[in-house]
User: What shape does this take?
Amino acid sequence: MNGGGRRDLKLIMLKIKTPKTHRAKRALEKRAPKLVENGKKTLILHGMKTSNLLNSVLTQIYHLKRDSAVKYTKKNENIRPFESGGETSLEFFSLKTDCSLFVFGSHSKKRPNNLVLGRMYDHHIYDLVEVGVENFRPIESFEYDKKITPQTGSKPFLAFIGEGFESVEELKHLKEVLLDLFRGEVVENLNLAGTDRVFVCTAISSTTVFFTHCALRLKRSGTSIPRMELVEVGPSMDLVVRRHRLPNDSLKKEAMKTASDQPKKRIKNVSSDIVQGKIGKIYIPDQQVGNMPLSSDIKGLKRERREAKKNKWNWMPVDVSRKHMLDRIKYESCSS
Amino acid sequence: MGTETYQIDLGNLMAFDPSHHFPSVPSDREDLVKECLHKGTELVQEIANALFSLPSAEDPDGPIVHLPQPTTRLPREKHLPKPKPPTKWELFAKAKGIKKHKKDKRIFDEQTGTWKRRYGYDRVNDDNDVPIIEAKLTDEPGEDPFAKRKAEKKKRVEKQENNRLQNLKQAMKVGALTSHVQLAATALPITGSQKEAPKKASKEELENVAGMAATATASGGKFDKKLPGEKAPKHTGKYRKFLPVVEGKGMGNQEKQQTEKILNQLMAKSSHDILDVNKAVTMFNVKKEKQRRKEKDREAFSTSTKLKPKKKSLKRSSKKKN
Assistant: This one.
């Protein structure tokens, strides 16, 4: 313990807090940083003023992401994502609900029907994209056969159309955020019968993206691959990019870091020593001394050698007994 | 229309057509939608082609394919977990070459001659089970060996708890504390000479609190409403002292003295040659006491259980001579 300085560390009473129930422990471990992460959850909330349109936009986005989203209904006064002090509430909510994506809606004269799509890294704001919603059509306005309604939580197809997504920086950023928002859980095995929805995003101009949600109908085709048919079901809207904030370079580098793809596999029988370096162990099976071939059967080998010489150019069949092969090799090495 | 190559990310079920552009935005909304859906269908068909041609396993619900890893890199949600730093024991064991051996749960207990657990209920070598402790030559007559054993165990447990806390603090410094453990400060750091915790107010003090607060009112608490059970304040009304109107013989000019006193106090603070020697000496002594007390405490903590010769006392006496 260091005793120097006016503030003596020894006088700070630290208490170890551990969960008293196994359930609590599991809940904490679920939220801990991991090598392979859980799916990102979304927080949907709005500011002091919202329009009817914006309310329905938020509820419909919530319906699209039912299981992995949390929707707040209260008005939040002090959330201003683009201002330096206005994000503390957002970060607090993100910490409490363990959500790393958020959709914040607000309405003002300057920015009507405003949606801020944002991501968090370690519960701090990573990046933001502000879009305005135009030409919104809710789910109710579409007429379709209710049997093909996509199921909640199914993994969607994503289609991005337009060169704008590659050339314009804002649209590139928006594409990344939309991908993160709508891709659902990252799974290894997929049931092909359960693919029933697709999100289509088209870059109409350098600032606008037409976003729509369609159900998939798999039609019988000649081959084993079915023919796809898109039926518009879900909300469709035009997203006009207003502002965006990219992450810092250092933060981006840290967030993009991945551990090596496989978990570190312990290589067995290899150890390292400071003096000798890398040491390996080789395990040899026990020698069966009783069954070891004796190499002093000279008479038999001599005969075989003569015969082998005779049949030099016709290859002998490979299933020669190991004993004879060994002895032949030994003899040849001895005699040469 | 550009080339028909799309960028497909099968792990995310995503397709991107970088070569499409609208030569002119269709003015009609429906046409726009139709065009977008048409292009969308093409892209989805491409993904499906790639998807359905993957080797699939049969399942009662449907064919299951193994998706490849997604190719688009997206930022993580939380930071990568940091490896835990080795604990003090682990470092020591590594240095000494001590290896962990698997311990059996049941051990043969010599005392009772049965197989007992290594820890827990009904365990081997339990302190409480010892019926007789034989007296040794080194034992003092008044000592209770059972109590001594208990005290030793308590000390051991406390030491272990401290070591554990130190290990956790070390891990916290690196930022690698296990997710289900939190270290919380229960009390604020106590600085300076106030080592004692603030005492709880006594009964008399609490009774006088209302009276103390009443001095803030203009009438000194004379007309304050009293709660049931509250005693009357000791001194109601303000303290005021009025100088006599007429000064008799033999008394100094009190008003002049009063103003002089105030002026002197004001001037003394800014004047440098007026030095209150007594006050200065007291201040110096108090400062010295505080320092000495702090050093004594530091020394007291850092000493081990072994007795150390008191060097400090010699120094103090030498200073007293001056």
Q: What stands out?
A: Chain A touches chain B through 90 residues (CB under 8 Å). The helical segments of chain A are 22-31, 52-64, 88-97, 164-167, 169-182, 249-256, 298-310, 322-335. Chain A has eight helices and 13 strands.
